[in-house]
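Running co-folding for 2-aminohexanedioic acid.
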Amino acid sequence: MPESYQNFIGGKWVPARSGETFESRNPANTDDVIGTFPRSREEDVVAAIDAAHAAFPGWRRTPAPLRADVVRRVGQLLAEHKDELARLETREMGKVPEEGAGDVQEGIDMAEYIAGEGRRMFGETVPSELRDKFALTARQPVGVVGLITPWNFPIAIPTWKIFPALVCGNTIIFKPAEDTPACAARLVALCEEAGLPAGVLNMVTGYGPEAGAPIVEDERVRMISFTGSSVVGREIASRAGRSLKKTMLELGGKNAMVVMPDANLELALEGALWGAFGTTGQRCTATSRIIVHKDVLDTFTKRLIDQARKLRVGYGLDEGVQMGPLINEQQLQTVEKYVNIGKQEGAKLLLGGHALSEGQYAGGYFFEPTIFGNVNYRMRIAQEEIFGPVVAIMPVSSYEEAIKVANSTEYGLSSSIYTSDVNTAFRAVHELEAGITYVNAPTIGAEIQLPFGGLKATGNGHREAGTSAIKEFTEIKSVYVDYSGKLQRAQIDVEHHSV
Ligand code: UN1
């Protein structure tokens, strides 16, 4: 019997009101059912928001250093359970356990980093134009926040949102992706174990239109933080705009790596392999375009094909596997669709291009590492996010052309350049239109102590993590304290002439 999981509302584990459930299955072997989960709808969401709303005054009054203590303890629990969680990630999401452990580690890092903010959360103190008057800012929580997270980093991304939201004094309704609810439930259980008061963090599982949309619609939810596709992000932003909610969106990417003729080619190849095929290409930061200078194009391409061909695809818990399956049937179809589009557009399929379904691959959503050559910037495979193990090699003749091609998509999350010329590197840092630029490293691997997010269709001007996290999850209160004992009129009583 698969384990039966529940929603977490007001400190209690409860089923959906309707009693309906859905299953989470192993993407490497769909006979393996990880568990059944509440198929939540508006009534469950409303109950969770009621609980978050009721818990808000108490949590808001809890001193930030004490709120941060709870987050620090969750981080310690994540560390204690790291192996178990990494294996669960492999089983539920498909990434290899080493990457699963990295995902959990990102959560541990976030806890450590943001718990320290409990004793910072700096405001500003500025001079007043008037005598005997004090002017400063303080940070206050936003209120009840709705956090909607994807399946590709089933522990890390929820922690990027939950931990800072908690330290800042917000209460939460959390809707994890329907593909990875078991990972989410484990994280929430660890928050409970760490001593989080009832109602501060509530989780409802289910599908976007049923369990996500009502969060966005509810007037009491003052902020939505969402990571996922640009299509859904646009919908959330327009709906949330009607109630003037704050929306923080982390959306798609079509990240480019530029390889210049003076690059260390070994390094660039290693980086390309990791950036394109790590996590089966299912990162919003994945390297999906490699823009290669013609002087090194042939060598680079041949060697990338050789190395990608050797990648061992399979179930992550089997020995020596380097690349797991795609998350689900729909994603498999999307990748197949784009391979066909690429062929029709005249790109050259250099490696892979097929789903794997025989033998050990039966019952899973496996796909070959796939490389297209001769791709130009107008092609759909160079413009649209695929979210799979498919990479496009795009030849260019100059640095200027490389930057033009790199910037030719609607997205702007991550970018990278391989060069040994410091001038070229710094020019690229300045000219690549992306929220993140790596020099001599692939487009993946952001660290939580720097802001994370992107330009153009990748978001709406917000950043997660780093110093941004506190800014995003708080409202600024400007405070004026007049201790003169008399009415002083700003802009009028300034004593310009009597200093
Ligand atoms: C994502 O794919 O949504 O920078 C996040 C990286 C990881 C996070 C990726 N640290 O690749």
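Result summary
The mean pLDDT is 97.
The pocket of 2-aminohexanedioic acid is lined by residues 106, 152-153, 227, 283-285, 444-446 (CB under 6 Å).
Job closed.
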